[in-house]
Structures are given as C-alpha cells and as structure tokens.
Amino acid sequence: xxxxxxxxxxxxxxxxxxxxxxxxxxxxxxxxxxxxxxxxxxxxxxxxxxxxxxxxxxxxxxxxxxxxxxxxxxxxxxxxxxxxxxxxxxxxxxxxxxxxxxxxxxxxxxxxxxxxxxxxxxxxxxxxxxxxxxxxxxxxxxxxxxxxxx
Length: 150
Description:
Helices cover 20% and strands 33% of the residues. It is α+β, with helices and mostly antiparallel strands.
C-alpha cells in the first residue's frame, strides 16, 4: 500500500525537483507512484511511494532538495490539492481582469459580481466611454491584478 511523504525543496524549484524525481524513479525502477507540486504549497513536493526508502533513493543527489519531512502525510491533508476548482472561485469582486476570448478579447475590466454557481462574472470594461456591465464566462478571463484584502 502506498504512503505519502513531503520533500522540502528550495522555494520556486518545486517543479524542477518533481521532474528530476520522476526521471530518477523511472531510471531506478523505484516504487514511486505520483509526485505532486501544487502552486499553493511553496517549498514542498508531495510524493506517493511504497516506502520511505524509495523516496530517499529518488531524491539522493538531486539539486534543490533540502530533505524529507519526518513521518507520513494523511491523504486527507493533500486531497484538496487534487480537486479542480472552478475559475469563478478564484476571482473576487474588485479584481482587474483581461478578457482572453470572445467579442471583448484583449479588454481590461473590473469585476463587479461573481456567480460561482454559473461560473460567470459580471465586469465593467475600463476602456468603455460609458460603463456597461458585461457578463462573461469565468474561464474566458485572466486575473491581472488581485484586489488587496483588508
């Protein structure tokens, strides 16, 4: 049965470490099943492996690895990294966005309302002479600037 372990890495090098670990695990045919480097978890990579020994063999000699966190991790602790989030869940009122598809492609706008259930947002275009609310799919925008939370 597989277990989960955390590898401490240099910040912003998680993806590099994950890729190097994958190559090492395949090369040495180790019992490593998955490697997870979520953006929200800076400085760490999560590894699913048979034994702690497999993890140690995988990271031996790799650059940017700072060590292994003692003990195992419960699946419940990392499960939320594996569930996909709707685009609307990550957008807040007051955020500045760029429309990346549709008739308003390339336009900058301010988010006025978020409808997570429909995965839609209502925005006001910045370049418009008269501010008109426009509803677009949350998947069709990219956040340029997050509103500072107070």
